[in-house]
Automatic annotation (TrEMBL):
MF terms (GO), sorted A to Z: methyltransferase activity
Residues the record lists as binding S-adenosyl-L-methionine: R43, G74, D95, M136
Matching SUPFAM superfamilies: S-adenosyl-L-methionine-dependent methyltransferases
HAMAP family documented for this protein: UbiG
Entry protein name: Ubiquinone biosynthesis O-methyltransferase
Gene source species: Erythrobacter westpacificensis
Keywords: Methyltransferase, S-adenosyl-L-methionine, Transferase, Ubiquinone biosynthesis
Length: 246
């Protein structure tokens, strides 16, 4: 399931409308975003390890992002922004759906987290550079993927870290993430369009054009025994780091 939308220039308007309608239910772990609640801890485990490796910080500290700026693009109602803030970052979240930003702002206020949420097109907001840029389950909803990746790269500090995730375009993902997931109600109907999924090879090429070097992707897989977990199996979904090339 997607973490929502990015901008009217890079996202189809119907996608913004689709995810905006889910805003009120976003923080309900048993609601329409239940899959995201299950996915979030897996993402955070990957991000924490990537942050520790990138900056060589204290792996025992509770706030490895203290003193750093983090940007989450396509933030939805803030499921990733809030943990990033708790890890010590000064967080900004951007989304194309006004309803999502309203829900995110309200929830963060209730949690006492000073997150800066912005509605609109990333490239027009004048946000500056960030040490960490994340965008989870978003690129597959973008019309102009190269323009979107370029926007992300433009907001990354020279020594910064980018973390991205997306479904892979495979027969398995078509069967399970689109067909079965929607049929069983695991994600709302119309959430995924399989033809827009991005393979790791395509993602690497998009990042290369934007002046980025992609790290080794890690799969996000599912099993009955483990649930959602990091894996070497990239066939359903994967998460990856990227850095600016020297």
């Amino acid at each position: 399931m997607a973490d929502a939308t990015v901008s009217n220039a890079t996202i189809r308007p119907e996608e913004a409308e689709h995810f905006g309608k889910l805003a009120a239910d976003w923080w309900n772990p048993a609601g329409s975003s239940a899959m995201l609640h299950k996915l979030n801890p897996v993402r955070l485990g990957f991000i924490r390890e990537a942050v520790d490796m990138h900056w060589g910080g204290d792996v025992e500290t509770a706030k490895p992002l203290a003193g750093k700026r983090a940007l989450d693009v396509g933030c939805g109602a803030g499921l990733l922004c809030e943990p990033l803030a708790r890890l010590g970052a000064e967080v900004t979240g951007v989304d194309a759906a006004e309803e999502n930003i309203a829900a995110a702002t309200s929830h963060a206020a209730g949690a006492g987290l000073p997150i800066d949420y912005r509605h609109g097109e990333l490239g027009t907001l004048g946000l500056g550079h960030f040490d960490l840029v994340t965008s989870m389950e978003v690129v597959e909803h973008v019309e102009d993927k190269q323009a979107f990746i370029a926007q992300l790269a433009a907001h990354l500090a020279p020594d910064g870290l980018m973390v991205l995730s997306t479904p892979n375009r495979t027969l398995k993902s078509r069967t399970l993430l689109v067909g079965a997931a929607e049929a069983l109600g695991a994600v709302p109907k119309g959430t995924h369009h399989w033809e827009d999924f991005v393979t790791p090879e395509e993602f690497e090429a998009l990042l290369e054009v934007a002046g980025m070097a992609m790290g080794e992707p890690k799969g996000i897989a599912f099993s009955v025994g483990k649930g959602l977990h990091l894996s070497d199996d990239l066939s359903l979904n994967y998460i990856v780091t990227a850095r600016k090339r020297d």
